[in-house]
Amino acid sequence: MSNAFAPVRLALAAALTLAAVAGSAAQPLVMGLDGAPVAPLSGDTPATVLLFTAVDCPISNRYVPEVRRLAASYAAAGVHIWLVYANRGESPVAARAHATAFDYGLPVALDPGGVLADRAGATVTPEAAVFDRAGRLAYLGRIDDRYLDFGVDRPVPTTHDLADALAAVIAGRPVPVARTHAVGCAIVRHEP
Fold first, then answer.
1. Model-level pTM?
2. Torsion over CA of 26, 32, 36 and 37, rounded to 10 degrees?
3. Where are the alpha helices (DSSP H) in 4-123?
4. Which of 29, 4, 7 is nearest to 18 (CA)?
5. pLDDT value at position 29?
6. CA-to-CA distance for 97 and 163, rounded, in angstroms?
7. Angle CA(74)–CA(56)–CA(75) in degrees, nearest 5?
8. Could you list the mean pLDDT of each consecutive 10-residue stretch along the chain, which spans 192 residues?
9. Burial of residue 78, with CB atoms counted within 10 A of its CB: 0-12 exposed, 13-18 middle, 19 or more buried
10. What is the CA radius of gyration of the chain?
11. What is the C-alpha separation between 134 and 112, in angstroms, rounded?
12. CA distances from residue 112 to 31, 51, 116, 121 in whole angstroms, order as listed
C-alpha cells in the first residue's frame, strides 16, 4: 500500500525542494498588485530602493510627497523605487486602493511572507532599503530625519539620508551612514 503512494511522495518532495530553492534564490519573488510574481531586485539598475509602507501608517502616508520627489529626481539616473507592502494582513485590494489614493506612481510589491523585509532587515514603515547594482544592501533606514520619535517631528528635515545614500551608490562610493533609525509603524508579521 505504501508503494502506491511512492509517486505522490516523490512529487511532493520535488515540489518542496523546488519551493526551498525558489525561496532561497538571490532574487526573491513576491507578488504585484495583479497577483503575478515580481522580482524588484532583478534587473540592471544602479540602485533599487525598497520602500516599505503600510496602508494604515500615518508616518508613511505623510512621506508621500517626498517619495514622489525622490522618484522623479532619480528616475533619469535609472534608480528603481518599489513600494513594498510587507504587512501580512494587507490585501491586494487594500494596497491597490492605498497606492492609487496616494498617487505614488511607483511599482508595487506585496510581500506578505516578509521575504523582502527579511532580506533588507526592515522592521517599520516607512523604511527604505537601497540595494546596489550587484544586489548588495547599501543602506537601510529612514528617508530623512523629520521624525525623531512618535509625535516628535521637525517642520523641515536637517538630513536627507535616503537621497545621500542614493547619490553615493550611483557614484559607486560607500554610503557614509549605512544604517539609520527609522521611526514608524511596526511591520506586522502575523495575521491581525
1. 0.83
2. 0
3. 6-23, 58-62, 64-75, 92-101, 115-120
4. 29
5. 67
6. 27
7. 10
8. 42 34 50 91 92 95 95 95 92 92 93 93 97 96 93 90 97 96 89 50
9. middle
10. 18
11. 25
12. 9, 15, 9, 15
Which amino acid appears at position 168 of this protein? A
CB 79 within 8 A of CB 48: yes
Which single residue is written with the C-alpha cell 502616508? 61
Beta bridge partners of 106: none
- Phi and psi angles of residue 72, each rounded to the nearest 5 degrees, phi first: -70, -40
Nearest to residue 83, comparing CAs of 103, 93, 73, 46?
103
Spans of all domains in the chain: 27-186
Alpha-carbon distance of 29 to 38, in angstroms, equals: 6
- Give the β-pairing of 108-110 and 80-85: parallel
CB distance 107 to 19 below 8 Å: no
Cis peptide before 40 (omega within 30 of 0): no
CB 79 within 8 A of CB 170: yes
CATH 3.90.1310.10 corresponds to the domain 27-186: no
Q: Tell me, what amino acid is at 128?
A: A
Contact call for residues 92 and 170 (beta carbons, < 8 A): no
Q: Cell triple for residue 179?
A: 544604517
Q: Of 76, 47, 58, which is closest to residue 162 (Cα–Cα)?
A: 47
